[in-house]
Write a structure and sequence with these properties.
This protein is of the alpha/beta class. It is built from 35 helices and 33 strands. The chain has an eight-stranded mixed beta sheet with strand order 14-24-23-16-17-18-19-15. The protein has an eight-stranded parallel barrel with strand order 26-27-28-29-30-31-32-33, surrounded by five helices. Strands 1-2-7-5-6 form a five-stranded antiparallel beta sheet. Helix 13 crosses helix 19. Bound molecules: adenosine-5'-diphosphate (ADP) and magnesium ion (2 copies).
């Protein structure tokens, strides 16, 4: 049997996204559940692959399949393609497995030419409508398929309007439109060097080819790169019979969401325009009306739409983003997909759907991307500061959060200035797909035109970026680089503040404040905690950070970097004194000054953490980091310490290292200067005693950094144990503590069995382990890693997302070897990766006990850990289901009775994931 490349809507379903694309699969699904979808067919993503591998041509086999489906469609519609009396018109729409808003262009009204347009005019009795449709088609086709810039068409249209001395397109009559059509065709011939194709079959071939080719264009590639979309083979093409929202005042078109995509409220939400077609709503050219108003204008269609809203949401068990068109009082649904939403609405929708009994808690958890929570941890405007600010104007609250920055007028400037470290706000009349990189680089986005479903709004929400759209009180002069708003004029160096949750725009800078975890968010986090197996700790060095982390649900400290405590003004002096000493005595004297301060820090930290585990890492960075670099600072220090400038310079010279990352740092410091480890041990244990005396509990975990050889660890452990004993004896108390190591040197990972003889825990320091494992300097790899990722040498920056194959393998070796001598060795991770969702999943799978990340990533880690546990559970269940099915097959043959299967599964499996 030959391979199927073309599917009618009746032949597909929602699970066929990979080959039908998201749009096609959902059009097919809606057709099968009886919704009013105009008929059509889908040319598969596999055909796209063939096309792009076959010199941008389809094979005869595929073309024959297309012809067959087109004949079927004609029969179904009772109209013929190219018929000069009553022509079938179609839209040609792209759609890959993952939705990419605005990425690939749709062509409407295809099938119109000089003959068929007359047929359409006759049949509809509306010549103006027919010519207007033809004009739109030529423009779209010229732009998308033939590469003629739309300015050319705008110019042509303007000239006719000027000649007639009118302002709006709607004021043009059929004769004017006829002129426009002629001018459009001329423009095409001039710009594209060939005639606009009058043959409808040629139109269709060219349009399909253009969509398939657009899979490979720059903006599609940029979008995929920015959104980390990999592994798709292409886009599908949907060929669908046209319906018309521009047939008069009983027609219209709109976009709606089953719930509010901005705040998640369970309320029908959307926008529409009467007597309009296709992209008019999202293009931001006319300002659309709110969906409720449709009830007054067309009550029956509105009711039908509300029923469909409910039906679709129940069917998909998720918030839907729906496109519809009404043609002469008849409603059609043109698209549905899971709606993009802000993180706060994602959380609210997930929680409320559980409360409504629509989905399970587990599915609710899986509906929220851990990384998206970042948005909820986003800044808000400080209300008291906001009161005093000058409100310039108000637009639509298109994407929440707050942003402060200088104005930029185009995407290139945004990118350039952001790369220089400036905080900028991209201000545009309206955005288009070319602006994506600039939007990504900006703090926030402000547009003068467009609704809640405009390009700017949709893309900003997807990026989790603050956006105020459709700000009609704003005049943007992009060429003069000036905005006029609220009676003032602002240029490129003016700072403005946006509130994406209210739509307000302010002059100047308003203080931003940190977010909290409560309400729906808190509930979802509780559910995450019920299912996750990994513990979540935080990397924190101060009581304040620790408190923040606890508020976000941290269960302990996985990494307290003690060196940060050394930098405060009063301490750095003593630290420098230690470094500048020539002998042990001098060092001890300086360390004695540091001891009470460090002990005080630990005491405060232990108090806050009360009973939760705290891992303290001993001094890690090379000593020269504590010495001044500028001459003036050196002079100041010399004076303060009463030594000569030369002596300090000499010492700096002496401490200079060619490769400090691999130099005298980590445990190497305290092995050569054991008094440092002694002081730090004493500070930890004396603080512990003090906390215990307060009646609190603490089990300190002392962590030795940069161990590559067990002898290094043994050396340090001897000191820690000895000081612990001394402190116990001096205070006449007993306390528990652990001594463990970081695994961050490849040799340490490979000899982990030897180290585990002595170490009570391992914490993977994956920053250094990546640096030394991949051989990439953390400080220098920025120069080439971006390109490495673009070239696909590494799929992600290995410093952000764990390189599972290499660095992950080192971790697995260390775990296996460590467990072989100490079965219950405590395992954690404290590198940056401890806050990265996909790395967290890996940590779960290799059996770590906890991850540790910065305070603001703690909620993300909690949810990611829950996802990891659920995914594992799901795959176990899938395995069990497969076993049950194969058992049943033995009994019943190939056609297993579904009730039997369901019966057994229900009794064995509680929660079944949706798919
Ligand atoms: P996008 O992927 O950019 O959303 P679509 O393929 O959904 O592009 O097309 C954009 C718009 O064109 C739709 O929202 C709809 O209004 C209009 N459209 C597409 N196909 C048809 C059709 N068969 N009849 C009427 N309008 C259509
Ligand atoms: Mg669409
Ligand atoms: Mg390290």
């Amino acid at each position: 049997m030959e391979k199927q490349y073309v599917y009618s809507f009746k032949e597909g379903n929602k699970d066929m996204k990979d080959i039908l694309g998201g749009k096609g699969a959902n059009l097919a699904e809606m057709t099968s559940i009886g919704l009013p979808v105009p008929s059509g067919f889908i040319i598969s993503t596999e055909a796209c692959k063939v096309f792009n591998e076959n010199n941008k041509k389809l094979t005869d086999e595929i073309n024959t399949q297309i012809s067959k489906k087109l004949i079927e469609l004609q029969n179904k519609m009772g109209k013929r393609f190219g018929d000069s009396k009553d022509p079938l018109l179609v839209s040609v729409r792209s759609g890959a497995a993952v939705s990419m808003p605005g990425m690939m262009d749709t062509i409407l009204n295809l099938g119109l030419n000089d003959d068929t347009v007359e047929g359409l005019a006759e049949k509809t009795g509306n010549k103006r409508f027919a010519y207007d449709s033809y004009r739109r088609f030529i423009q779209m086709f010229g732009d998308v398929v033939m590469g003629v810039k739309h300015e050319n068409f705008e110019k042509a249209l303007e000239s006719v309007k000027e000649e007639k001395e009118v302002e709006f397109d709607t004021e043009l009559d059929e004769d004017d439109l006829y002129k426009v059509i002629e001018l459009y065709k001329e423009a095409i011939q001039e710009e594209a060097g060939r005639l606009f194709p009058n043959d409808v079959y040629e139109q269709l071939d060219m349009a399909i080819g253009a969509v398939f080719a657009s899979w490979d264009n720059d903006r599609a590639n940029t979008y995929r790169r920015l959104n980390n979309i990999h592994g798709l083979i292409g886009t599908a093409v949907n060929v669908q019979s046209m319906v018309f929202g521009n047939m008069g005042d009983d027609s219209g078109t709109g976009v709606c969401f089953t719930r509010n995509p901005s705040n998640g409220e369970n309320k029908f939400y959307g926008e529409f325009l009467m007597n309009a077609q296709g992209e008019d709503v999202v293009a931001g050219i006319r300002t659309p009306r709110e969906i409720e108003e449709l009830e007054k204008i067309m009550p029956e269609n509105y009711k039908e739409l509300v029923d469909i809203r409910e039906k679709l949401e129940k069917h998909y068990k998720d918030m839907q983003d729906i496109e519809f068109t009404i043609e002469k009082g008849k409603l059609y649904i043109l698209q549905t997909r899971n709606g993009k939403r802000t993180a706060s609405s994602a959380v609210r929708i997930a929680v409320e759907m559980v409360e409504e009994g629509l989905i399970s808690k587990e599915d609710a958890l899986l509906k929220v991307e851990p990384g998206a929570l970042d948005q909820l941890l986003h800044k808000q405007l400080d209300e008291s500061d906001k009161k005093n600010a000058e409100l310039l104007t108000k637009g639509l609250p298109a994407s929440p959060g707050a942003a402060v920055g200088k104005i930029v007028f185009n995407a290139e400037d945004a990118k350039e200035r952001a790369e220089k470290g400036e905080k900028v706000i991209l201000v545009r009349i309206e955005t288009s797909p070319e602006d994506i990189e600039g939007m990504n680089a900006a703090q926030g986005i402000l547009t003068a035109r467009g609704g809640m479903t405009s390009h700017a709004a949709v893309v900003a929400r997807g990026m989790g970026k603050c956006c105020v759209a459709g700000c009609s009180g704003l005049v943007v002069n992009e060429s003069k680089r000036i905005i006029e708003v609220g009676g003032g004029r602002f240029g490129e160096d003016s700072i403005i503040t946006l509130d994406g949750s209210s739509g307000e725009v302010f002059a100047g800078k308003i203080k931003l404040i940190e977010p909290t975890l409560s309400g729906y968010f808190g509930k979802l986090m509780e559910w995450a905690d019920e299912v996750r197996k990994l513990k979540v700790r935080t990397n924190a060095d101060t009581p304040k950070d620790s408190q923040t982390a606890i508020k976000f649900g941290a269960e302990g400290i996985g990494l307290c970097r003690t060196e940060h405590m050394f930098f405060e003004a009063d301490r750095i002096k003593a630290v420098r004194e230690m470094i500048l000493s020539d002998n042990k005595e001098g060092r001890e004297k300086a360390l004695a000054k540091i001891l009470p301060m460090q002990k005080g820090d630990f005491y405060e930290l232990f108090k806050v953490m009360d009973g939760r585990p705290v891992t303290i890492r001993f001094l890690d960075p090379p000593l020269h980091e504590f010495l001044p670099k500028e001459d003036s600072e050196i002079e100041e220090l010399a004076e303060e310490m009463d030594v000569s400038v030369e002596k300090i310079k000499e010492k700096i010279e002496e401490l200079h290292e060619f490769n400090p990352m691999l130099g005298h740092r980590g445990c190497r410091l305290a092995i050569t200067y054991p008094e440092i480890a002694e002081m730090q041990s004493r500070a930890v244990f004396e603080a512990a005693v003090q906390v215990i005396e307060d009646g609190k509990t603490i089990i300190p975990e002392v962590m030795i950094p940069l161990v590559g050889n067990t002898k290094e660890f043994e050396n340090q452990k001897e000191i820690v144990d000895r000081v612990a004993k001394e402190v116990m004896k001096e205070n006449n108390v007993e306390f528990d503590y652990l001594v463990g190591t970081m695994i961050e040197v490849p040799r340490g990972a490979i000899t982990a069995d030897e180290i585990a003889e002595h170490a009570e825990f391992f914490s993977f320091g994956t920053n250094d382990l990546t640096q030394m494992g991949c051989g990439f300097s953390r400080d220098d790899s920025g120069r080439f890693l971006k390109e490495y990722v673009e070239l696909g040498i590494y799929k992600n920056d290995p410093f952000q997302t764990l390189d599972q194959k290499g660095v992950g393998e080192l971790m697995k070796i260390a775990i296996e070897k460590g467990k072989s001598v100490r079965k219950n060795i405590k395992l954690g991770i404290c590198g940056e990766h401890g806050g990265d969702p996909s790395s967290i999943e890996f940590c779960h799978n290799i059996g770590l006990n906890y991850v540790s990340c910065s305070p603001y990533r703690v909620p993300i880690a909690r949810l990611a850990a829950a996802h990891a546990a659920l995914k594992e559970e799901k795959s176990k269940r899938m395995q069990m289901i497969n076993e049950v099915v194969s058992d049943l097959k033995k009994q019943y043959g190939e056609n297993v009775p579904l009730e039997k299967l369901e019966g057994i599964l229900k009794s064995r499996v509680g929660w079944l994931c949706e798919d």
